[in-house]
Amino acid sequence: MNIVYREAKIDDYEGIYYVSCYSWEETYRGFMPDDYLDDRINNFEERALKTKKYLEKLDFDGDLDKYLVCEVDGKIVGICQYSKSQNDSYADSGLLGALYVLKDYQKIGIGKELFRRASKGIRDMGYKTMYLECLTGNDAINFYLKYGGQIIENIDYKISDFSVKADIVYYDKIRDVIKKLS
Questions:
Q1: What are the strands, taking DSSP E only, across the chain?
Q2: Global pTM?
Q3: Sign of the C-alpha dihedral, residues 110, 49, 97, 32?
Q4: CATH number for 134
Q5: How many domains does the structure of the chain reveal?
Q6: Structural domain boundaries, residue 95
Q7: Dihedral, CA of residue 29, residue 30, residue 34 and residue 38, to nearest 10
Q8: pLDDT tens across 102-133, in order?
């Protein structure tokens, strides 16, 4: 198995959307309305093109999100997105906005390595703290807590035309997270 981690390129848009789409299907069925998850799959091409347009924007504005991908044998199986904070309550923190690994590739260290690289990226952006939003009830919360995160708030998280509950997981020292992940 050949595993490669790298920054995303515009041409990765279909792979990035595929991982996002199908990891949501695998993880969030029962947490979100079925019609919303079905729409993500049924309108794959249209939604993937939106991902491409977003990646094209990133190419011109370094202050926007950063994307990492993990390829196994040439196929994108994991993605990670991070950025400056999107929440005024955590304006001085970096945001781990997404970390998804397809189910067949979980539990082999891909998520951990993407998390480590994103944590370093957030630190390199000048942040000492970071946070993420994890849907309440998602088993991934145990992964995030394992590396020193603390649940500090439960919020209504707006998605499309509905909301779900999400836990804010906060890390007060990125350097400690990186050490635990190394």
A1: 3-7, 66-72, 75-84, 94-101, 130-135, 150-159, 162-171
A2: 0.94
A3: negative
A4: 3.40.630.30
A5: 1
A6: 3-181
A7: 0
A8: 999 999 999 999 999 999 999 999 999 999 99
